[in-house]
Each structure stands twice: as C-alpha cells, then as structure tokens.
Amino acid sequence: MTQILDGKALAKTIQAQLTAKVHDWTPQVGRPPGLAVIMVGDNPASAAYVRNKERACDRVGIASFGQKLPGDTPQAYLEGLIAELNADERVDGILLQLPVPQHINDVTLLNTIDPNKDADGLHPVNLGRLVRGEPGLRSCTPLGVMQLLHANGIDIAGKQAVVIGRSILVGKPMALMLLEANATVTVAHSRTHNLSALTRSADIVVSAIGRSHFLTADHIQAGAIVVDVGINRIETSAGQYRLVGDVDYEAVSPIASAITPVPGGVGPMTVTMLLHNTVLSYCQRMPALAHERGTLLS
Ligand SMILES: Nc1nc2c(c(=O)[nH]1)N[C@@H](CN(C=O)c1ccc(C(=O)N[C@@H](CCC(=O)O)C(=O)O)cc1)CN2
C-alpha cells in the first residue's frame, strides 16, 4: 500500500500545537507574535497565498502587519519599509512574497531583512547557518518537506535522494536539509543529462521544477518516496483551472512507497512552517521565553 503523505492533516496538527503555545505565551510576553507579509503588485496566485497566510496567522493568534503595495512601488520605498519593520518591536517575522515585479531587485530586499526576523529563511545569514549545520530560521517549503517525512516515520539517513530544481526558495535548501539528515544527495536541473536514469536510482525524489505532470512512472523505481513540490495551474477541458503537481500522480502513486498529493501535500506545510518560524523568532527574541527555545517541533 502506498503511504499518502498528508500535509493538510499534519499542518492542522502542528497549527493546533502552535496555537496552544501562542495562547500560553502571549500573556507572559505582553504581546502576540507578529508577522509582516509584504506583497508588491496584484499577481492573483500570490494574493491568494498571502490571504491564506493571514488567515492562518489569525487562527494561531499571530498578529499580521501585512503591506499590500501597488506594482509600481519603488525599490527605495520597499527598502525603507523593511528598515521600519526591522525596528518594529511588535514584528518577529518579515516575508517578501515572491515573485516581485521585474523592476524590483528581490535579492537586495531579502538581504535587507534582519536575519533574526527572516521568516522565510532566505537571508544569506540563515542560508549560511544551514550550510554550516547551525541552528537558524530555515526555508519554509523544504522545512515542511522534512517535517512531513519525519512525522510519517520515513528514515532518511543513508538514502539516495535526488532533488530536481536548484532554486534558492526550494531546491538548494532542500538538498542541504536532506544532507543534514544524512542522505546522499544529488541536485538535478534543466541541464542534467539522462534525468530518468538518475531519478530511477533514487530512494527519495523531490521535484521542484514547476512543470505539470513532468515526472512519470518511467522516472521512479519501485518503492521510492516521491515528494511533489510543484504547484501548477492547468486549464481543464471545461475551461476551469485545476491545481496539479510536477508528478503524474495517477501513474506514479502505484509504484511509490510514499507520495505527497497536490493539493494537500507540501503546500499546507509551507504555510505552517512560516507560522512556526514566526513563533520561533518570537521565542528567540523574547527573554521571557528563553527556556522554551527548541520545544517547538518535536
Ligand atoms: N516569499 C515566498 N514566496 C513564495 C513562496 C514562499 O515560500 N515564500 N512559495 C510559493 C507560494 N506559496 C507561499 O508563498 C504557497 C503556495 C501554495 C500553498 C498551498 O497551500 N497550496 C495548496 C493549494 C492552494 C490552492 O488551492 O491554490 C496545496 O498545495 O494544497 C502555500 C504556499 C511562491 N512564493
């Protein structure tokens, strides 16, 4: 029987645990944790993700300091806004929703965020901490994948893992987290030769390339663990939109020993790890919670 790695259910469990902690800690600290999500422009998918993040914050008891800005907002304004949020004591986490419009230099902006408030774990200091195996704020999607594997009892040590995709948001931190968990990791990308031979030799395949139904049964060996990070919208014959992953789920799930669905797999874990990172940053910044650090994820 193929194990379905249910991100929706795990996200619910972790969010309930975070809610209980935030409920206990808010009176001790005198304020709730705070998250500022900055969104520039009106990309409809981004707007939906930001709404989901704000709703999730509400459920858990995290205060939102969101800023939705017009698509022509100048870079200098955004740098000023991040400087203000860095200095704002009520804000524990800051996130720049990606992608940003073309005239914005997202790397410069991400580097401006205080590393101790970097809820997305994308600042060079936090990525550097990950490379060095030091504690720090970790990128939400790969952290969510690691939690999903861990919570489902999947042992990573010694396994051959292939990560498809080399983005800073997912592919590179994913490879580092799997390596940290003692997997033997290969990163594949658009220039990789003979991808299917590589993925067929893998015990764990993580796909983060953003191409619908790209990974077929030919790419997977029997018993592999398949993690689908892709979120692709395709038009149905009825003219409606449907969300699919990078993996041809119908063809691959009978072969795999475990697989994440789309929707309901990695996506809900991304949002939950953002909440986790905000609460972790709150814990690390508030002296009253010093003894609680390290108790967030079991
Ligand atoms: N600053 C960031 N920008 C972006 C990130 C990110 O982690 N940080 N990731 C993606 C978008 N994203 C979060 O921002 C995200 C995408 C999808 C989901 C999710 O829960 N998906 C659901 C389905 C939702 C739907 O029906 O549309 C699922 O897979 O079940 C959460 C977060 C790019 N930008």
From TrEMBL:
Homodimer. It comes from Leptolyngbya iicbica LK. GO terms for cellular component: cytosol. The gene is folD. NADP(+) binds at residues 165-167, 231. InterPro entries: Aminoacid_DH-like_N_sf, NAD(P)-bd_dom_sf, THF_DH/CycHdrlase, THF_DH/CycHdrlase_cat_dom, THF_DH/CycHdrlase_CS, THF_DH/CycHdrlase_NAD-bd_dom. The keyword Transmembrane does not apply. The keyword rRNA processing does not apply. It catalyses: (6R)-5,10-methenyltetrahydrofolate + H2O = (6R)-10-formyltetrahydrofolate + H(+); (6R)-5,10-methylene-5,6,7,8-tetrahydrofolate + NADP(+) = (6R)-5,10-methenyltetrahydrofolate + NADPH. Catalyzes the oxidation of 5,10-methylenetetrahydrofolate to 5,10-methenyltetrahydrofolate and then the hydrolysis of 5,10-methenyltetrahydrofolate to 10-formyltetrahydrofolate. Its EC number is 1.5.1.5, 3.5.4.9. Residues 5-120 form the Tetrahydrofolate dehydrogenase/cyclohydrolase catalytic domain. GO terms for biological process: L-histidine biosynthetic process; methionine biosynthetic process; purine nucleotide biosynthetic process; tetrahydrofolate interconversion. Residues 139-284 form the Tetrahydrofolate dehydrogenase/cyclohydrolase NAD(P)-binding domain. It comes from the Bacteria. This is Bifunctional protein FolD.
